[in-house]
Structures are given as C-alpha cells and as structure tokens.
C-alpha cells in the first residue's frame, strides 16, 4: 500500500535492527451524492463507513455534496473535478461508490485515480414508469450511468434482483458479490407481544406512486366492514423525498373518504417515533412496485410485524415467505390479504402456540414465526456484513487485477 513502511530499518549508530514498523491501514475513498437523514442509500453509505473504520481496518475519506451527520467526517465537494484532484482521492488504495440515482461524482469510476481498485455498491434505479413524468430525465440519466458499473473491479449488489440488473448492464457474474444492507434499526419484539385489542397497520416509505400508498388506502376503505376487529393505519414517510402532488392526493383521499378516524399520516418522523410505530404495529403494508432491497421489511420483521404487499422486484425475496404478497396492482387481493390477517391476528395472539396464521410460507404459529424471523434477520447484522466488506476489499487489493473478473478493462 502507499503508506506501507519497511518491516525493519538499521539503526546505524546502534548497529542493530530497529523494531518492525507497522504498515498503516489502506486508504478508502467512499463516495456518495449526499448523506442525508431518512434516506436509504445515505444510511447504507454510513454503514459502510462504520464497517470499514471498525478496529481501524481502513482509513476512510467520505466524499459527498452534503452531509447531515456532523459526527461522520467528510469532504464536501461540488463537482467531479473537485473529487478527481483531491489529495485523499488520489492517495486512496480503494475507491468505493454507492449508486442508485444519477450524480456526477459517479462518472469518476471511468478513470479512478490511476492506481486504486474500484468498487460500486449498487442499489438499483427505479424504472421511469413508476415515477412522475417530470422525473423521467433523472431516471434516464441514472440508467445511462449504470453502464459505468462495467468499469469497476467489483460490484456489490444489495440484493439478488440488483445483481440481475447489473448483469443486464454488462457486468460479468464473477465480478458481482451479494452485499445486503445492514439492518439493526428498530426494536426487537416478538409478534406475540403485541396487543390483541387493536390491530395496527403501518406503512413506512416515501409518498410516491411507486409505493402504492393510494392503493393501500383504497384497500383500507374496503376494510371498513371487517366487523368486530378494530384496526388503524399509520403512514410514516420522508416528506422531503416524496412527490408533493402525490402527497396532496393521499391527504385528499383520506379526507374525501372520511378515513381520518382510522388513518394517521405522520409524514417524516424521528428515529424514536419510528421505533414506537414499529413496536405497536402488527402488519407492515408495502404495496410497492419497485424495491431494490426494502429495508423497512427487515426492520418490521425484527419488530414482530407481518409484511403484506405486492410481490414486486425484491419484495418476495426480502419478505422470505414471512408475509402475504399479492400480484402488483391487485387492490382486491391486497384488501383480502389484509382482511384475512386482521381477522386471524386476535386469535393468534390469544393462542400464540397455535398454527393459525396463513402466510406465504404456510400456516404457522406466532411462536414459531418469532423463532424463524430471529434466525433470518441475523444475516443483516452490522458485524456480519462488515466482516464480509472488509474481506472483499482485502481480496481485491491483494489479488492480481487479471484475477478479478474475466472482463476487467
């Protein structure tokens, strides 16, 4: 590495070998567009920073346009030129980008710094059919930049679906590694610890068409005659990253249909409030049309919630059969799945050892569900993923370039 020192040097006056000097850790330039609160890619970039700096394994310099986390040191840059000529970028042994939406700093993956190994953590891009027309240009630019994935020695796909997309953009399979997101946020709670007096449905995500919030409200409207089982719906999402027109439509639907007594639209919430919402909820509603990973599903499972939504993109994989997923756009089936769970949960909570919950993986008891969820969600622990990240970086920095994927250019 650039800062490695000789294992030993001769002390001329003493005529002896001095103690071996310890080589400094390799340098990593970690690059993302912004590091913002309540943003999934930003959270992943922070998790990467913490994983690589654990035990002083690597010296990490974070580059971004904006950083909302003062406790995370960073270099604020305004252009790709600022990045390319920055000393900590030029001296880096590893260049690691997070990518899920267009930003100019990602163009630097084409040239690197002349010596470092290049890695991209790929979060996927939402297709243009799921975003407003005014955002199509941004999506088109993002998809065009996806071709730059081929310039990296290694691509870390946060899900199997994203790995498939990377291959579609020309990245050979032997240069793609699975690297799921870290999920340790939210409370740990067993499903059987929830109240049986009021069933709570929770939505967590941006208020955009791709998340299916209006369709969720249509399904909830149809549940008003569920009878005998009181329920409520809580909506939590980052307003800053939502579509303002869609937010207006959601609010108008709630008011126009008289759903205000059972639906609460929280908008952006802090971490403590979100943890409380997860802890109180029985069901996570996620009728989304596109998810590259979907961190809320794992957060909800950790909190003892059952996911109900659309079987789109990565949702069937991340839900892992622990919920009820229906064909995308099928509001009638979404309503039926919610109705079935709302009716079944009070009995399941009354008798947690009885196999009476019908989920995608079969009929199961709350006790068995809790045990299986605990085993499943352990794979998203920071310690485990951090170990994988550090292991991969050690491999690519100590391997000959010709051995890192057959189509390295």
UniProtKB/TrEMBL annotation:
Coiled coil: none annotated. GO terms for molecular function: glycosyltransferase activity. Signal peptide: none annotated. It comes from the Bacteria. SUPFAM superfamilies: UDP-Glycosyltransferase/glycogen phosphorylase (SSF53756). It holds the Pfam family Glycos_transf_1. InterPro entries: Glyco_trans_1. GO terms for biological process: lipopolysaccharide biosynthetic process. Residues 190-342 form the Glycosyl transferase family domain. Keywords: Transferase. This is Glycosyl transferase family 1 domain-containing protein.
């Amino acid at each position: 590495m650039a800062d490695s020192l000789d294992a030993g040097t001769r002390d001329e006056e003493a005529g002896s070998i001095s103690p071996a000097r310890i080589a400094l850790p390799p340098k990593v330039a970690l690059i993302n567009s912004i590091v913002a609160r309540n943003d999934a890619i930003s959270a992943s970039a922070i998790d990467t920073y913490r994983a690589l700096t654990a035990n002083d394994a690597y010296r990490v310099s974070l580059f971004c346009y904006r950083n909302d986390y003062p406790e995370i040191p960073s270099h604020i840059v305004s252009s790709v030129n600022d990045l390319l000529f920055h000393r900590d970028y030029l001296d880096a042994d590893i260049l690691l980008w997070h990518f899920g939406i267009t930003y100019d700093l990602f163009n630097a993956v084409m040239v690197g710094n002349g010596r470092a190994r290049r890695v991209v953590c790929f979060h996927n891009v939402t297709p243009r059919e799921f975003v407003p027309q005014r955002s199509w240009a941004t999506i088109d630019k993002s998809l065009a930049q996806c071709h730059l994935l081929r310039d990296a020695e290694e691509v870390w796909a946060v899900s199997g679906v994203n790995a498939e997309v990377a291959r579609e953009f020309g990245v050979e399979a032997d240069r793609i590694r699975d690297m799921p997101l870290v999920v340790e946020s939210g409370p740990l709670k067993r499903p059987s610890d929830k109240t049986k007096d009021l069933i709570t449905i929770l939505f967590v995500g941006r208020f955009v068409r791709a998340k299916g919030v209006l369709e969720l409200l249509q399904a909830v409207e149809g549940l008003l005659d569920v009878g005998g089982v009181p329920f409520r719906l809580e909506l939590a999402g980052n307003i800053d990253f939502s579509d303002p027109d869609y937010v207006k439509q959601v609010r108008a639907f709630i008011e126009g249909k008289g759903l205000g007594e059972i639906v609460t639209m929280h908008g952006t919430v802090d971490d403590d409030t979100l943890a409380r919402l997860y802890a109180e909820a029985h069901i996570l509603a996620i009728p989304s049309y596109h998810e590259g990973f979907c961190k809320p599903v794992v957060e909800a499972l950790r909190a003892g919630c059952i996911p109900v939504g659309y079987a789109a993109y990565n949702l069937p994989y991340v839900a892992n059969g622990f919920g009820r997923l229906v064909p995308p756009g099928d509001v009638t089936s979404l309503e039926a799945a919610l109705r079935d769970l709302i009716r079944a949960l009070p009995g399941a909570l009354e008798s947690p050892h009885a196999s009476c919950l019908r989920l995608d993986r079969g009929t199961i008891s709350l006790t068995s569900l809790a045990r299986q969820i605990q085993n499943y969600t352990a794979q998203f622990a920071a310690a485990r993923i951090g170990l994988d990240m550090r292991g991969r970086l050690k491999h690519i920095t100590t391997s000959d370039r010709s051995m890192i994927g057959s189509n390295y250019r």
